[in-house]
Structures are given as structure tokens and as C-alpha cells.
């Protein structure tokens, strides 16, 4: 408990220092809570980190898989230039509606869109339509499908794209090679797949703080 409490306190200190009051983000979180969505969005510092990554590579086209209530979506959409575009894929109609409302309220609806439906279907449709490549991907939906998501993101990428996946450490859950938990098995497969792919340079950064011990994988497409 002790170490967790310290890392949570540190997160709160850093949020106060580097984020402060942010009405659009606060209202997205509040709208999500009122709609009964679980509190599993990225943390404020993680959201800001994602936005910095996207801005650092000058991302003009961002693809998110898993919108929830639009919290990470707002961070990512804010990183776009004026003529940028973000698509967020979400299976749940309530989540899709809340995310659209959050984007609208944040003044980001002009260049961010929610595509409602199973993400794998939406990804396959984008691939079939020969959609222009995306610069930045954030994989954060059902963990069971992570290997297929990585595969589809690669198909929609270009050399220089970044593919970030959330929750790939799961409190050390990925250590268990015999786990029967499909989320663990699929996460391990995705990491294995990333490691074996010569087109990808991948690192995983473990995280602590208000979301406990977890991590992001970050893959650069070559
Ligand atoms: N990125 C969000 C959190 C996403 S939580 C944030 O940080 O703010 C995971 C989301 O993935 C949930 O909203 C869930 O409904 C969605 N999801 C689960 N399975 C999915 C699927 N097959 N296709 C698309 N979205 C899915
Ligand atoms: C869960 C999902 C997430 O994307 C996350 O960041 C934390 C928890 C979950 O499904 O429990
Ligand atoms: Mg997540």
C-alpha cells in the first residue's frame, strides 16, 4: 500500500504543477461518470504524455482504438494541427455518444470523429477503403484483440508512424506465461509480435501512479 500511495500522491502533485484546472477534461470525466462509464481513462499525466508524443512527431492523422468517454481523445485531438484529423473507434453506443459530446464541448468536434462499432470491423473497412496512413495510433480497447489491432495499425501506418498500446504490463500480469486470462495471453502475444517484427522498433515503459502499476508499449514503424 505504502509505495502505491506515494506514487498516487506524486501524480497529484505533478497534475497540479503541469496541468491544473482544465474545464474540458474535467467535464469529460464528469460526463463519463454520470453516464455510468468506468473510471479507466488514462491518467492526466498519461494523457498529456500521449499528446506530447503525437505533437512531437507532428502527427496530422491520429487513430484511437477505444474512446470510453473521450478523455484520451481530447488529449490526442488537442495535439493536432488546425487541419489535422482524429478518428476514435468505439463499440459501445453510450461511450460513442459521451465521447462525441465531450469533443463538442471541448471545441474539437471539427477534426475528431467517433466511429461506432467493433473496432476490428472499422479497421478492416479503413484498410479496404485504402484510407490514407495515420501518423499516430493509440490502442486502448479490448485487450483480447490487441494482436489483431497491432496488425491492422501496421497496415494503416507509414514509416515514421508511432503505435502506442496501453495496459501492456497489468501489474506484472504479463509475467505469467501460463495465464488462462485471455487479456494476459493476448497482451503477451502482441508484445511478442511487436518484438518479432523487423518493421517495428519497440520499447515498453512501465508506469506507476493513480492507475497502479502498468505500462505503455511504444513502437516506431520503420
Ligand atoms: N482511451 C480511453 C479509455 C478506453 S477504455 C481513455 O483513456 O480515455 C476501453 C474502451 O474500449 C471502452 O470504451 C470499450 O467500450 C471499448 N471497446 C471494447 N471492446 C471494443 C471493441 N471490440 N471495439 C471498439 N471498442 C471497444
Ligand atoms: C481497464 C482498461 C483500460 O484500458 C485501462 O487503462 C485500465 C483498466 C479495464 O478494462 O479494466
Ligand atoms: Mg487503458
Question: Can you lay out the helices and strands and say which pair or pack?
Answer:
Elements: H1 2-18, H2 23-34, H3 44-56, E1 61-65, H4 71-78, E2 85-90, H5 93-105, E3 112-116, H6 119-128, E4 136-139, H7 146-155, E5 162-165, H8 182-196, E6 200-207, E7 214-221
Parallel strand pairs: 1-2, 1-4, 2-3, 4-5
Antiparallel strand pairs: 5-7, 6-7
Helix pairs in contact: 2-5, 3-4, 6-7, 7-8
The structure holds S-adenosyl-L-homocysteine (SAH), 3,4-dihydroxybenzoic acid (DHB) and magnesium ion (MG).
Account of the 3D structure:
The protein has 222 residues and is of the alpha/beta class. The chain is built from eight helices and seven strands. The chain has a seven-stranded mixed sheet with strand order 3-2-1-4-5-7-6, sandwiched between helices. β6 and β7 form a beta hairpin. α2 packs antiparallel against α5 and α7 runs parallel beside α8. It is globular. The N and C termini lie far apart (41 Å). The structure holds S-adenosyl-L-homocysteine, 3,4-dihydroxybenzoic acid (DHB) and magnesium ion. 3,4-dihydroxybenzoic acid (DHB) binds next to loops.
Amino acid at each position: 500500500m505504502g509505495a502505491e500511495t506515494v506514487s498516487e500522491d506524486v501524480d497529484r502533485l505533478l497534475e497540479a504543477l503541469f496541468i491544473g484546472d482544465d474545464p474540458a477534461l474535467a467535464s469529460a470525466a464528469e460526463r463519463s461518470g454520470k453516464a455510468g462509464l468506468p473510471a479507466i481513462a488514462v491518467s492526466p499525466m498519461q494523457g498529456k504524455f500521449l499528446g506530447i508524443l503525437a505533437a512531437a512527431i507532428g502527427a496530422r492523422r491520429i487513430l484511437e482504438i477505444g474512446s470510453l468517454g473521450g478523455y484520451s481523445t481530447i488529449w490526442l485531438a488537442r495535439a493536432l494541427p488546425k487541419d489535422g484529423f482524429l478518428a476514435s473507434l468505439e463499440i459501445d453506443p453510450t461511450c460513442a455518444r459521451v465521447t462525441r459530446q465531450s469533443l463538442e464541448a471541448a471545441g474539437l468536434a471539427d477534426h475528431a470523429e467517433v466511429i461506432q462499432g467493433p473496432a476490428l470491423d472499422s479497421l478492416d473497412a479503413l484498410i479496404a477503403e485504402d484510407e490514407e496512413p495515420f501518423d499516430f495510433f493509440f490502442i486502448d480497447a479490448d485487450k483480447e484483440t490487441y494482436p489483431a489491432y497491432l496488425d491492422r495499425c501496421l497496415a494503416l501506418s507509414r514509416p515514421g508512424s508511432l503505435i502506442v498500446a496501453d495496459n501492456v504490463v497489468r501489474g506484472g500480469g504479463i509475467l505469467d506465461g501460463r495465464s488462462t486470462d485471455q487479456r494476459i495471453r493476448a497482451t503477451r502475444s502482441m508484445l511478442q509480435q511487436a518484438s518479432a517484427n523487423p518493421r517495428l522498433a519497440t520499447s515498453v515503459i512501465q508506469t506507476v501512479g493513480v492507475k497502479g502499476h502498468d505500462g505503455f508499449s511504444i513502437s516506431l514503424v520503420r
